[in-house]
Amino acid sequence: MDLFVAAGATAVCFLAAIFALRSRPEKKSKPCGCACSCGGAEVGDAGGRVSMARSNGEVAGKEKETAGAERQVGGSMMEQLVPEITTHALSYLDYPSLCRLSMTNSSMRRAANDDNAWKALYHKDFTVEQDSVTPPNGWKSYYAATKAIVNLNTEFYNIIRERSLPAMSRFWLQADYVKCVHASGELFSGYNAVIDSWSLAFNWDHGGQGIAFQIRDVRARVLSDMAWITMKAYVDIDSGPFHVTNIYEFRNGQWYMVHHHSSVMLGEGDLGQPNVFI
């Protein structure tokens, strides 16, 4: 991954160097100071001085026009390279690097804020299942919202590992319609019943050791005020996974859990007791 990031950064720097070279104006030649003739008059002659000044003004104007045209050509070339080459190079950068790149210059800012670059990064970091989705605020905003929900979901499982009932109580929305289905299959409805179920789960004897598990295949979908995540939770990597669905609601500027459902996929002849933590 470090190699890909380095290659992407090198490509971006190369493009920036091309832009700088093409945009550099040519140096103007200094007057020689000799008594040469311009327009048939010597420098010392008053008419000649007027004619030479007029001629120099025309030359300076043409040089400015030429320099401006070269800058336009360099800028237009850079803009043509951005969607074809730079976007591909940016796909190798991670989320913080892409954000920092957008603060370098105007050309890189346009490239780093391009929707295609953020869509490619979303597919790389999350999933390609939502390729047909058109986020109303663009892929950059959708990436940030998805990242926030995934981080929140990670916090949920950290609370379980730490067996922190106060943190779990703050994590759930205090509403009558929240629901929790543990792997045992029992349904708990309403805020008080849900928190009581977690209190029972945290007090469950597990040999004095904290519960250890792995979360894989995380898939998130985020709307304006609702989000849901599906995943697989492995308590024992050699056994089958728990299939988990978590639903969150955005209320008063904050995301809260409103539904947790875990179901164990038992193998043939496997009648073991499911883990109530998941």
UniProtKB/TrEMBL annotation:
Give the protein's recorded name.
F-box domain-containing protein
Q: Where is the F-box domain?
A: 75-121
Q: Name the species this protein comes from.
A: Dioscorea zingiberensis
Query: What are the leading ranks of the lineage?
Result: Eukaryota, Viridiplantae, Streptophyta, Embryophyta, Tracheophyta
**Record's superkingdom?**
Eukaryota
CDD domains assigned? F-box_FBXL4
The UniProt entry, under InterPro entries, shows: F-box-like_dom_sf, F-box_dom, NTF2-like_dom_sf, SKIP8-like, SnoaL-like
